[in-house]
């Protein structure tokens, strides 16, 4: 069972589409949930729903994120939202994924975590200062 955050757009949507195009035999059912990764309770509930429906999670692709453009300045609320989603949201998913792999998946199965960041975390971009900082933090 593959759990992908951020699958409605961008890289994770493309990853999801590739999985379906390739006819991955491990994919037999799809379950979608609207979830805010900055809210730990929603993440815990999403993992619980996956356990109830599929029994386990084998892979978590942790890539939910957002950007806010501004060459000179962006609003404080936008800057906070970028950090909450990209840094703290990723940390929240990571924490629950590791707990799930250790405590819920059958003994010896564990799981795989794909932490997906951005090149802007290593090479900042002038119009994406907070986005770059949030991805560097990952």
TrEMBL record:
MF terms (GO), sorted A to Z = oxidoreductase activity
Q: Which InterPro entries match?
A: NAD(P)-bd_dom_sf (IPR036291), SDR_fam (IPR002347), SDR_oxidoreductase (IPR051911)
* Pfam families from the UniProt entry: adh_short
Per UniProt, which keywords does this protein have? Answer: Oxidoreductase
Protein origin, superkingdom:
Eukaryota
Q: Which family does it belong to?
A: Belongs to the short-chain dehydrogenases/reductases (SDR) family.
Q: What is this protein called?
A: NAD(P)-binding protein
What species is this protein from?
A: Dichomitus squalens
């Amino acid at each position: 069972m593959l759990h992908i955050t951020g699958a409605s757009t961008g890289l994770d949507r493309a990853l999801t589409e590739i999985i379906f195009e390739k006819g991955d035999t491990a994919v037999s059912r799809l379950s979608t949930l609207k979830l805010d990764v900055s809210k730990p309770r929603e993440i815990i509930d999403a993992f619980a729903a996956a356990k109830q429906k599929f029994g386990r999670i084998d892979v978590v692709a942790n890539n939910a994120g957002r950007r806010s453009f501004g060459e000179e300045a962006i609003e404080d609320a936008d800057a906070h939202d970028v950090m909450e989603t990209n840094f703290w949201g990723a940390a929240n998913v990571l924490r629950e994924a590791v707990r799930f792999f250790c405590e819920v998946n059958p003994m010896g199965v564990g799981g795989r975590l794909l932490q997906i960041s951005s090149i802007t975390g290593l090479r900042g971009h002038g119009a994406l200062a907070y986005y770059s900082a949030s991805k560097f933090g990952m």
